[in-house]
Amino acid sequence: MNAVYEKLEKCLKSVRDKVDFVPEIGLVLGSGLGDYGDHIQVEAVVDYKDIEGFPVSTAPGHKGRFLFGYVNEVPVVCMQGRVHYYEGYEMSDVVLPIRLMKMLGAQVLFLTNAAGGVKTGFHAGDLMLITDQNAAFMPSPLTGPNIDAFGVRFPDMSQIYDEDLQQIVRACASEMHIRLREGVYFQLKGPNYETPAEVNMVRTLGGDAVGMSTAVEAIAANHMGMKIVGISCISNMACGISPNPLSEEEVIEAGRSVSETFTELVTRTITCIHKSL
Ligand code: HPA
User: Fold this and answer.
1) What DSSP assignment string belongs to 13-29?
2) pLDDT by residue (tens digit) across 217-228?
């Protein structure tokens, strides 16, 4: 059997030995956004370190656990902390948690992240609906033998971010009277932030925000047929646009500063997505 699939089955069994909760939506909380977990009516917590074979996240601002519970009666599994490629994991491990959430029952993947603003006019603290992505500089998480049980060898990526779910986010933002940015999320490997020349490249290639996660997760989820929605918290203007050097603390602080609006938008969106399924 395929080694990646075998590992996932082990992780699935390990989680299922602890909880029988079946989520409808898988929610990934990005840097500085983990406090959203306080708004979930938690039924069970599973630390990543207690899942056999699971890649344990080491990034600052990431707790490293699954929360199983309800957002307004909608069953969700929430990742407080994700696994990044720059931590040194194989790409198959980076997307393992995403695949696991699908195997646990999640039909929808709600991705959030902190990202650097690239598009002129964006500001730190903006929320950006992800409409498309560029992961061309990343190894594909689908490299290696195809796992036919998950999806086809050459999956279509013409609409990674589900158009109906995008409409739901727009409608929720409009009800809240908040300004929602939209744009293309561009993933680079990290962990170093970009040089001004790299930010120029991202802009030239059509990126509106730049980050170190999310796009490869979306590829793996799309391969498995999940419906995907994504929101970036623009935590800073990317290097070369802002005159100040960038720090991890700034990124995490920006997430905190926007947390009230972010919380309401995520909760409203989850509630509406549930009604639409
Ligand atoms: N670049 C890459 N990743 C990021 C940034 C950035 O400016 N801000 C938050 N995550």
Assistant:
1) HHHHTT-----SEEEEE
2) 999 999 999 999
CB atoms within 10 A of CB 203: 18
In sign, the C-alpha dihedral spanning 52, 55, 60, 65 is: negative
115 Cα–ligand 1 center, Å: 4
SS3 7: helix
Percent residues over pLDDT 70 in the chain? 97
Cβ-based neighbours of 162, under 8 Å, separated by 6 or more: 227, 228, 229
- CA-closest residue to ligand 1 atom 10: 115
SS3 content of the chain, % helix, strand, coil (to 5): 35, 25, 40
The per-residue pLDDT for range 79-129, each reduced to its tens digit, is 999 999 999 999 999 999 999 999 999 999 999 999 999 999 999 999 999
- Which domains does the chain possess? 3-276 (3.40.50.1580)
Where does ligand 1 bind, in terms of residues with CB under 6 Å? 114-116, 193-194, 210-212, 235-236, 238, 246, 251
Q: How many CB atoms lie within 10 A of CB 200?
A: 15
- What is the Cα–Cα distance from 118 to 126, expressed in whole angstroms? 12
Q: Which of 113, 111, 31 is nearest to 78 (CA)?
A: 111
Average pLDDT, the chain: 94
